[in-house]
Amino acid sequence: MSPALLPGTGSTAPPPHPNRGATALSVLTAVTQTLATAGARRRRPVTAVDRTLLVEVHAVRRPCPDVAELDLVPAGAEPLPGWRPGAHVDVELPSGVMRQYSLCGAPDDRSVYRIAVRQVPGGTGSHEMHALRPGVRLRLHGPRNAFPLATAPLYLFVAGGIGITPIAPMVRAAHAAGVPWRLVHTGRDRASMPLSDALAVLAPDRVLRRPDDVAGVPSAAELLSGTDADAAVYCCGPPPMIESLRRALPAGQRFHSERFSPPPIRDGRPFTVRIAGGPDVAVPADRTALDAVRALRPDVPYSCRQGFCGTCHVRLVEGTTVGDPAGPGLTALCVGRATDGTIVVDLGR
């Protein structure tokens, strides 16, 4: 998930828009926000939520051979917290592994959270998620939203494979509000493209499902074909897709993205991580401190690999970092890099 996303506005009053649908969506967003925050003061979407929820796996479905869709219901009598399109939850698995998954169900249904998980070959978290069965209890943290749907006069939604999960609630919200929208969903083949078949039922002429095995890998120009200059473009998928769209869009056009893999390292320089009470670890220019430290200490936890979840944040004893979203006195091992060659960290274990 991308940490550099436009947060929602700070006002609950919808701004004027050129069509009724956009105004309706602004009202819907404001009302949902009010319910979700229960009157609390707005915070930046990536602010950690100190809230643990106990849920139970209610149902597991297989919309695609390698995708598990899970319904999670409250383990107690209290309804689940409200959320807005683009939100995710941190799932604490029975093994202790923590992973983030986008909510892809209905935001106004507080009786169930729905997530969809693609199994990644060799992936620890996805393998464990696919092994879950009804009746298993899990701890969730959140929900949080680093990919909020902001009000716009019209939308283009672009999803690559399992990147449809945060996009699906956005499409339904725009459709319900009467705001013009289009969806382009790509994937290696139709069997790898979950959820968008149900969205096509809403408006078949607005949904393009484009499998690579039939049409080839799409260019940015193909994905953006016919896009209005006033449209807000929302994209979730692999980094190459996101970067190609970002470069192809005109300057000033609204573009919001979320990725399910680590951001690429640009202009990286090698540095050293000195573990307090332990050895020095060399970090190559094209690797992260998390990669290098885990090669020596594989028990170091991680989750989002993009800096915002906090799982790999550790105490920074000496030195300074760049590109680091962790708070004062901390560093995010997955993205922070030493400013001057060496940092000293305390892994606390």
TrEMBL record:
Gene3D superfamilies: 3.10.20.30, Nucleotide-binding domain of ferredoxin-NADP reductase (FNR) module, Translation factors. Its cofactor is FAD. Keywords: 2Fe-2S, Flavoprotein, Iron, Iron-sulfur, Metal-binding, Oxidoreductase. Residues 41-150 form the FAD-binding FR-type domain. It comes from the Bacteria. PROSITE patterns: 2FE2S_FER_1, 2FE2S_FER_2, FAD_FR. This is Ferredoxin-NADP reductase. It comes from Pseudonocardia alni.
